[in-house]
């Protein structure tokens, strides 16, 4: 639980007239990437949302097939990037997806490490509404939560944040502050001691 403070710092977002929803992962089932694909399909009519997905793993072939079968537009898959390049990829996002969004028991018991990285970079972040995420985060304050394994709930969460710039900024800043106060290496070291 925590993040690398030297690597994950706020960076200015590169100008882009598109609203960029960002996700990266190893495509293990608990991440529920298929729900991100279905949410992207539901949001096509918005016309100005790009989904960027970085990674590779167990469910990747199935997820790519699903995206092709649904004919999802504005969903872009990219290969994994080196760890040192993740902050640059995250910096290009308007909104980040921390998850997990899967339906397994394990999905409800874990907090994705990427969530801390996104928050450390002051990015508004959507996570699954799980007991694990509720242990550390508060909906509408430092993250935005949505029902897990529910593409419609995820799509609605994305729209809620997209349509409220002040909310995006508030959640991003409070998420960053929470990371600094509770999840820094110094704070984690104190807990361990």
Give the helices and strands, then pairings:
Layout: E1 19-25, H1 33-42, E2 49-55, H2 60-70, E3 75-78, H3 86-91, E4 95-99, H4 105-109, H5 113-120, E5 125-128, H6 131-136, E6 144-146, H7 151-162, H8 165-183, H9 185-192
Parallel strand pairs: 1-2, 1-4, 2-3, 4-5, 5-6
Helix pairs in contact: 1-2, 1-7, 5-8, 8-9
Class computed from helices, strands and strand pairing: alpha/beta
Please compute the radius of gyration using only Cα atoms. 16 Å
Oligomeric nature of the chains: single chain
Unreliable parts = none
Please tell me the overall pLDDT: 95
Number of strands: 6
Question: Care to describe what's here?
Answer:
The chain is 44% helix and 16% strand. It has a six-stranded parallel β-sheet with strand order 3-2-1-4-5-6, with helices on both faces. With 193 residues, the protein is an alpha/beta fold.
Outline of the structure:
The protein is α/β, with parallel strands linked by helices. It has 9 helices and 6 strands. A 6-stranded parallel beta sheet has the order 3-2-1-4-5-6, with helices on both faces.
Write a concise keyword list for the protein shown above:
193 residues; alpha/beta; six-stranded parallel sheet; 9 helices
């Amino acid at each position: 639980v925590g993040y690398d403070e030297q690597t994950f710092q706020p960076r200015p977002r590169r100008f882009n007239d598109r609203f960029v929803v960002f996700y990266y992962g190893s495509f293990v089932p608990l991440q529920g990437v298929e729900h991100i694909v279905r949410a992207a399909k539901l949001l096509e009519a918005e016309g100005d949302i790009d989904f960027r997905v970085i990674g590779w793993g167990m469910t990747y072939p199935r997820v790519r097939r699903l995206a092709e079968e649904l004919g999802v537009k504005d969903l872009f898959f990219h290969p994994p990037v080196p760890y040192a390049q993740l902050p640059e990829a995250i910096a290009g996002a308007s909104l980040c997806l921390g998850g997990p969004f899967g339906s397994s028991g394990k999905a409800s018991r874990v907090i994705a490490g990427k969530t801390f990285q996104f928050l450390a970079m002051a990015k508004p972040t959507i996570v699954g509404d799980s007991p694990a995420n509720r242990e550390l985060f508060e909906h509408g304050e430092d993250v935005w939560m949505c029902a897990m394994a529910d593409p419609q709930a995820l799509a609605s969460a994305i729209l809620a944040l997209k349509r409220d710039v002040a909310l995006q900024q508030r959640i991003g800043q409070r998420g960053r502050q929470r990371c600094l106060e509770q999840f820094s290496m110094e704070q984690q070291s104190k807990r361990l001691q």
